[in-house]
């Protein structure tokens, strides 16, 4: 993690148009979300979440509605694309061009699915660069994030992330459904594979390329037991905790309750914050007193150790900047105040 | 998976010569196999399955007997090779030359073991190309499959599979025994490692390079319990199911009962076939009726989804073409007929 | 594994200076270690194990004390370094220069932590080469081992190991603490991830590059239960056995009791030695009698199989050469004698 914290605890897709009287129902609901239901990234979805015959309407909904709301997180529409079908790339190119032309100031970037090898990702980046130039935006002002969901993208993950380190590429998001279909993965009664090798590589390559890494969607939203159908909170939390453990920066959400859970799991716990604020306070005291060896609670504090403490505080500050309702709800006021005021310099 | 289905649910090795009165006993038995005991690929083995002093006889058995049987699957003799020992490469070169010269029309390709890095695989491909040209076969008519069983081949797996995408390379087969010996893997009481990272990469790289991926052999053929020795069906099925789950196309068989199990697990279940035939039938109706949005049983059917349904049907058709005894035994006649007659075009 | 066995069952770090009356207490204790407590590699630690204000003293302790003891294993001081901070690289350069200048005859190489991508490893190798040349040592006489503990080093692991095959690079050691911090891995109650993908890759790439692979430290040295605090033997043995199973050559030790356990687990068991000595004895008899097919106890012995037997014996001989107290303690005298005298040639 770098010092410049970029948050994406939650990557919430919302279909940009659905076959209801109000076709923008879900998009509006996400744009209006508050508190822990507000995702860090809201992704108006013009790809698999929107029916083929409603995609045009989804694009219009996005262009019309996004500017109407003061959504405090980032906006990243997902467009169409496919490394193996030129027709989808053309659609994606048109969607990107319209989005940048009409609401280039309102979006942080675009999400491109079904990319193939490095060359295909470079091509998608070029499409964004062209729209940016065409419509007068500064180079790099519109980001690119990709869904890793093909054998080719997984095969080139290292090369894609290296390219990403010096480009507009921002996040690598896992897409397990298309991925499993492409590899021929099967559910033989105990679920689909978790693809642990891919998840570990995603976390590593994102870290090596200073990118964000995000887990895949979990669509068993509800569960039925003993006559009752209820939100499947445990299974989603298990998946998100597994992703957090491996160092993924965020998780995919399909639903407001999922957003609450992913936002919570991907922020430092009150215990983690208390511990690391305390360590830095002690470190700062020792520095002031000029004691040479900086050993705190029996642990030697070198620069690497200091950075892990600082990272916790910086993450909380980043959340506090855009989502004060969440930090004020989750942490004691006094602790939050200490985190806000702490001096964070090692030297 | 591409539209052009190539089957290798079962990669059955048979020693090309054994120290018995009839040295070709196992080879003949495999060539005569019927029904679910007939493997997709039969591999007359001149390498580790045949004793050093019987390898010459194994080659003669193969050349003499393969043409005598109407084996309906593919024939892929395994020759000798080693990235670290020129002597074995020379033997392999001679065996490949003899096989192509004498039965080039009868074999689909050769299996080369113990390959090292990409350069070694390219060299093996060149040996096949030379034999092919020397004996008047069209370029690419004799395939090459390799056993991935060295640290070097695993290290270069991505590069080998990329090379494979435009070459005669057809399948990547895992060889766990030599692999574990080379890495120094040990059984400390709970078995050897399963090498999950390698299996996941094998599935991915094969998919990215349009190759087949095949799991390793399982040699605990029999089990003893309560005074009885019996075929170890559960443990083999567990391994094959694990491989199928990860998207491997087939499994290694050492024994007719293993072939029955691997053939069965790597074909769509009757439930999977019924489900996907039904989806395509409904899709085709909707297309005929001209309804715009194609939503079937609550699921939106885009091209990617359609492909997964079609893939099931195409696999069954491919098996039905070469192994009608298996499809007719495994599926209800009416369902099989629907699968045979279905229109499979998305547009 | 190559025929030329290089041992590193145990990579024991000892802080080069600690804030005690005798600042070299732990270093001396390691240099004096005997029997199973003597590690194959002793690593005087001037990096994270020594406080910032004691590092200079740690360097002097190492230079002064290492020549005073007849330590029979290898000596590999760990210096400072960081791919992302030039200041640490400068410190490392000075430490390497002093070590080679003063005790270049006594050390086998240096351990460099926090390396980044291949270019950074090449740079570290160049620093060693310069010190070597400057102080009159033959090219390659001072080795280099690296701690793999950054996303970049993991990302370039294949390329680093390929470079290692023709260079002074000797061992790849996993560093889980910095690695988890860099990736943002978290302990959410059930411990940190084991990073199975990394461990498998480490074993593979080390094998492909003829390098040694070593697991990471385990620092829950003690456990408290039912009022008693005691050495956490089980948990450490579990980790070391997992590493041995995957083919890692050795494990990191922080403590004499850990060294006993890692030395033991990473050497062939008496049963393994008895079995493989027996196989080679039978093989040698068969060779003398001129029987063609070499089948022993129902198992065909080809060159690959023979190598696995020989590897066991060669490892025991390598331990026996430097650590006779261990082999004499661990194996029956008669068995050890048979292992020492065996003819080990296949042809």
Automatic annotation (TrEMBL), chains A, B, C:
Key words of the record: Lyase, Magnesium, Metal-binding
Cofactor(s) annotated in UniProt: Mg(2+)
GO molecular function, one term: magnesium ion binding
Gene3D superfamilies assigned: Phosphoenolpyruvate-binding domains
BP terms from Gene Ontology: oxaloacetate metabolic process
Domain HpcH/HpaI aldolase/citrate lyase: 35-187
Organism: Halostagnicola larsenii XH-48
UniProt-listed SUPFAM superfamilies: Phosphoenolpyruvate/pyruvate domain (SSF51621)
Protein name: Citrate lyase subunit beta
InterPro entries, per database record: Aldolase/citrate-lyase_domain (IPR005000), Citrate_lyase_beta/mcl1/mcl2 (IPR011206), Pyrv/PenolPyrv_kinase-like_dom (IPR015813), Pyrv_kinase-like_dom_sf (IPR040442)
PANTHER family reported in the protein's UniProt record: CITRATE LYASE SUBUNIT BETA, LYASE BETA SUBUNIT, PUTATIVE (AFU_ORTHOLOGUE AFUA_4G13030)-RELATED
